[in-house]
Amino acid sequence: MKFEIKHRFFRAVLFSTEAESMKLAVEAAVKSRVDLIGANLSEAYLSYAYLSYANLIGADLSDANMSGANLSRANLSRANLSRANLIGANLRRVDLIGANLTGAKFTGVPIIEHLDSRILATIEAGGKLNMGEWHSCGTTHCRGGWAISLAGQAGAELEQKIGIANAATLIYLASTGRVPDFYCDNDTAMADIRTGAAKENGNA
To answer: Among 127, 151, 149, 152, which Cα is nearest to 140's?
Structure first.
């Protein structure tokens, strides 16, 4: 059977091949080092697919089943992963910057209730915010670093498994439903943390 992988907007064919399934077609494209930038893979069944180093920038993977897939070092920046099943997927060193992760399913991501309030309270109690580094020391972190630190051992294990940026992104997403800007300056971050804390406490 012939499978075509098309661009999500322009409908141009990015890759075509004879295969038994879309999963095998996508694996063939990745193996051939085809750029799948903007690919339309919405609802694709990619469970346990080997997608290491795949270039999926801006791809539509909404509602896709990627449970158990090997996505190590794949570039998923700005990809639409809304409601995607990523349970058990290998996300080590995956680039998720700017990706839409709304409703995506993961395993091993700790949830911190009232995360912004916890970060604010920790800083007001003597901790320090340094947006220039993820972790400066045990009492100084950037916003994402504080999220990982407050998650305790589970946060440390997640960071070790998938990297600092991804761990911070997933913890914030699971805990608050949003991903803040981890690369802004201290004043901007503090203002947003205070806003988030006020919303958590019903004061905004």
So the answer is: 127
Residue 154: predicted pLDDT: 96
Whole-number Å distance between alpha carbons of 117 and 121: 6
Q: Chain centroid to CA 84: how far?
A: 11
Sequence-ordered alpha helix ranges (H) in the chain: 22-31, 115-124, 143-150, 152-162, 164-176, 186-200
Give me 19's structure tokens: 């295969």
Q: What is the CATH number that goes with domain 1-107?
A: 2.160.20.80
Distance CA 54, CA 75 (A): 6
Ranges under pLDDT 70 in the chain: 204
Residue ranges covered by each domain of the chain: 1-107, 115-200
Encoded amino acid at 22, one letter: M
Residue 2: its H or E element: strand 2-6
The pLDDT, as a whole number, for residue 203 is: 74
Burial label, 195 (beta-carbon count in 10 A; 0-12, 13-18, 19+): middle
